[in-house]
Amino acid sequence: MKKIIFVAAAILSCAIALSGCNEKNSSKKADNQVKIGIIQLVEHEALDAARNGFIDGLKAAGYVDGENIAIDFQNAQNEQANCVTIASKFINDKCDMIFAIATPAAQAVANLTKDIPILITAVTDPLTANLVKSNEKPETNVTGTSDLTPVAAQISLLKKITPNAKTVGLLFCSSEANSVFQIDLAKKACEENGLEYIEGSVSNSNEIQQVTQSLVGKVDAFYVPTDNMLAAGIANVAMVATEAKLPIICGESGMVNNGGLATYGINYYELGKQTATQAVKIIKGEAKPADMPIEYLQNCELKVNEEVAKKIGIEVPADL
Question: Which superfamily does CATH assign the domain made up of 8-147+267-296 to?
Fold first, then answer.
């Protein structure tokens, strides 16, 4: 187990989104280069790690930005309209491949092209997101990796760390399909562990602090899945929860780093590297997205923020 102690989105301008590659985000494509567009829904620790893992994975396989590949990275600043604009840009620029990070980004690209190979990551269930016909055999131009975490194990972790908890506050963004999918799993896991739950859904980042505060006095702990809006705003959740001495069990370690108590989750950097391995097969012509199953990380990591535990008066069980 690894124990670690840790101490307003701007809209992407159309001028940038529609412009060509710039020095910071991309390399100019030469005739012999493979052009890869990277669209990321929003910048937060987990998604950044997935992007870095993907780029490093390509490099390890001999594909280096500025040499034999040209990468155009665009951040959608958590705006769906920007996702569509960026997707259109990549198509107009005739990218050879698109790497989409997070469900809304993947959906925006997949809705606009059925020809360009699309690699996805940080998408919990590509099937329910309507990106593939089957996770085992996509039969579309989309494949990649899922960030499905062991939700049941995370709820069991909550029960173990806070054995006297009776009611859990489930925080999530109601417009994120991946979050709704995980919350349904969390509800089932709560029932199996004899826990009641109260949903706390948000539709925009400005509601996070208010919704969290509304559950104080009603719940004994919070559960936050791998939700992009909540991941970007986890500091607001932590501010309220820490003051109320309520633990937050998170879907991924980035949220633990920024104020959550603990998680049993996946390594997004490794997930990005795994997606790069799939991308290399496509670049080399060894496989097509339609025939490549969605892949999952098999190993999970337990992570506890000891500083938060001390602040809220939680004694972490010795066997953790």
Answer: Response regulator (3.40.50.2300)
